[in-house]
Amino acid sequence: MQGRQTEQPSADAARGRAERDAERVSGVIAVAQTVDTETGEVLNEPEILAHFGELPAGIIPG
Question: d(Cα 12, Cα 22) in Å, to the nearest integer?
């Protein structure tokens, strides 16, 4: 499951999915980012919505 991305319909859904996935893997991050689906252009910086479990050092700023 390493590096797997899924698209969720809302921030709440992304947080919930991350929390459920954290029961099966060691660490999970839910990120919001807007991408133009026609061009692939990233329209904003990623926003971390939630994180669970053990993550490598430096993944979460702050």
Answer: 15
Residues 50 and 31: their CA atoms lie apart, in Å, by 7
Q: Tens of pLDDT along 22-54?
A: 999 999 999 999 989 899 999 999 999 999 999
Residues 6+ apart with CB under 8 A from 39: none
> Contact, 8 vs 22, CB < 8 A?
no
- Against a cut of 0.90, is the pTM above it? no
Residue 51 · residue 30 · CB < 8 Å: yes
Task: Please provide the distance, in angstroms rounded to a whole number, between the alpha carbons at the two ends of the chain.
Answer: 26
